[in-house]
């Protein structure tokens, strides 16, 4: 969940340090359970791939049991997602267009 929130913050260019408590899906998506579940499922899949690559040759428990390990995992995922975004700017539009900070 932390990594998801960090990536969403990256996409939304969140300057508000409280954005993790204030980010939500836009109303037309939020009020449609099927679409909400689909977007969140795709989001998780998009973020888990870089996390999997990062943890592939590591002991996930040892890495994720410390805040430094969680932060390192999040930073790695964000770096990969940023690179993909720079190469293909429209790749994550489905997510960026459907989230908002209240």
What does this structure look like?
There is one protein chain. By secondary structure, this protein is mainly α. It has one domain (2-101). It has 7 helices and 2 strands. The chain starts with a helix and ends with a strand.
The helix count comes to 7
**Amount of helix:** over 70%
What structural class do the secondary elements suggest?
Answer: mainly alpha
Average pLDDT score: 87
Strand content: 5-15%
Low confidence ranges: none
> What is the string of helix and strand elements?
HHEHHHHHE
What's the β-strand tally? 2
Number of domains: 1
Strand order of the largest sheet: 1-2
Summarize the topology.
Blueprint (H helix, E strand, L loop, with lengths): L1 H11 L6 H4 E3 L1 H4 L2 H23 L4 H5 L2 H21 L5 H4 L2 E3 L1
Antiparallel strand pairs: 1-2
Brief overview:
The protein has 102 residues and is mainly α.
Give the key terms:
102 residues, mainly alpha, two-stranded antiparallel ribbon, 7 helices, globular
């Amino acid at each position: 969940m932390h990594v998801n929130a960090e990536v969403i913050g990256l996409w939304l260019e969140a300057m508000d340090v409280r954005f993790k408590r204030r980010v939500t899906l836009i109303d037309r998506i939020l009020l449609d359970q099927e679409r909400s579940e689909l977007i969140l499922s795709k989001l998780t899949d998009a973020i888990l791939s870089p996390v999997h690559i990062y943890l592939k040759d590591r002991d996930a428990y040892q890495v994720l049991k410390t805040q430094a390990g969680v932060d390192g995992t999040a930073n790695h995922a964000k770096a990969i997602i940023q690179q993909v975004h720079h190469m293909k700017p429209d790749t994550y539009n489905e997510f960026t267009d459907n989230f908002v900070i209240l």
